[in-house]
# Entry
Amino acid sequence: MKTRSAEPEGAPGATKPLGAGFYVRPVLDVAADLIGCTVVHGTTAGVIVETEAYHQQEPACHAYVGLTPRTSTLFGAPGVAYVYRSYGIHALLNAVCEPEGVGAAVLIRALRPLEGVELMRERRGGAGRGAERELCSGPGRLTQALGIELTENGSSLESGPVLIMPREGPAPQIVSSARIGITKAAELPWRFSVAGEENVSKPWPRRGEQPRGLRRGRPSRSG
DNA sequence: CATGGGATTGACT
DNA sequence: GTCAATCCCATGC
# Structure
């Protein structure tokens, strides 16, 4: 049973998933604001502790090549899941952002396990027998732990099957750093994570790195 | 139709 | 530190 919020709509005590209005904003804002929110899939759930922003005007973004069958989800409605296969092995989960027609998304890179830890361990197999912080500390790991697959590409993050619930309580302290695992536009500090959090992917952001508010390199909305 | 490149992970030296 | 696994899709002929 959850504590009752001041939310005027919906059933008392019920928390509604984030709607399109949350995602239609600039992708850097959404990437930072998703920290502390919760991803739910079936009986498993985790708190978002690491994200990365991607925008069509920088070459690391899949949408940089323009509208193709692959990128159609990215250019589509905000608040939708963009799930694609990485390195032939892993499914990576993104939240589509900005208005329809703009290719932008937030990559969910790490979660703090919240519910269904036992099922997460089963799905992660041998790799799930280690420390709990290794269950969801990486974009490929968390989709495996939550059972998210390519079939969820294009599905609504408000109506499911993958849901993102709003943050409960105060905003955590957030640090920004360079994105990981890319060769193009690698200098942009568009990675966001919870300060001091251990459930994030390596390399860990250095302590004392840009405590938010970084606006250098922000994509112009006119482009 | 053939080819090449990943927004990664886990195993191994 | 190095390296292979494995699939979707963009690109070029």
